[in-house]
Design a protein that fits this description.
By secondary structure, this protein is of the alpha/beta class. The chain contains seven helices and ten strands. The strands form two sheets. Strands 6-7-8-3-9-10 form a six-stranded mixed β-sheet, with helices on both faces. A four-stranded antiparallel β-sheet has the order 2-1-4-5. The chain is globular, with a radius of gyration of 18 Å.
């Protein structure tokens, strides 16, 4: 489903020198895969995730997403593909503080071609699936960290993306809350969701089907 070939990301240091964050990355991710990306701070993990998520455009190499050559797409075309096919879960939750749980779930649907009734049905299904019906009228500040991340995961997959990208998804959670989120990821993957997560935790990494190790921008 995803194929990266010779992906490199660098920044100019001056005097013609470059600092490479990623070097010569070749990576294939099949539909239904669950990949854990590990490595020390500064290894390039988050940069790789942002390239996969089509947020970072300053790289070179080839990136194919379901046979679409992402490296040939214009910025607006990449954004359209990203919004339709990629879901994101962040360490910091990134919920909108002035919107209720229901409204936070509705937001990603409002950018797509859903009718009002279809949006309402999808939000109702998500609230029920993640057992947060009783939280629908609450604001993020009224939720625990674990509940906020649960809403974050529900929002990420509500429009049925083909791949879910997670950047340290349990980094701000207590161990029991983190375990709940990882078990949820396992269940989503068993249902067919393709997942790529960045993590420092060997325990969290073990939930994946395989581990990709990064060191100084290289896959090792």
């Amino acid at each position: 489903m995803i194929r990266l070939h010779n992906i490199e990301r660098s920044y100019p240091l001056g005097r013609g020198q470059m600092f490479y964050v990623l070097r010569d990355i070749d990576l294939d991710i099949a539909a239904g895969d669950f990949v854990s990306v590990m490595g020390p701070s500064g290894a390039g993990k988050s940069t790789l995730l942002h390239i996969l998520g089509m947020h970072d455009h300053g790289w070179t190499g080839e990136y194919f997403f379901d046979e679409t050559a992402v490296h040939h797409l214009k910025s607006k075309e990449r954004a359209t593909l990203r919004n339709a096919q990629v879901g994101f879960v962040f360490q910091q939750y990134h919920l909108l503080d002035d919107l209720t749980v229901y409204e936070n779930l509705d937001i990603p649907l409002s950018y797509r071609h859903y009718s009002k009734s279809e949006r309402a049905a999808l939000v109702a299904d998500a609230l029920d699936r993640f057992q947060i019906v009783g939280k629908k009228d609450l604001y993020p500040r009224q939720l625990s960290g674990g509940q906020q991340q649960l809403v974050g995961v529900a929002r990420a997959i509500i429009a049925s993306p083909k791949v879910l990208l997670a950047d340290e998804p349990t980094g701000n959670l207590h161990s029991s809350q983190g375990e709940e989120i990882m078990e949820l990821f396992r269940k989503l993957n068993e249902e067919g969701m393709t997942i790529v997560q960045v993590t420092h935790s060997e325990k969290n990494a073990s939930y994946g089907k395989r581990i990709v190790q990064l060191r100084d921008g290289w896959i090792v």
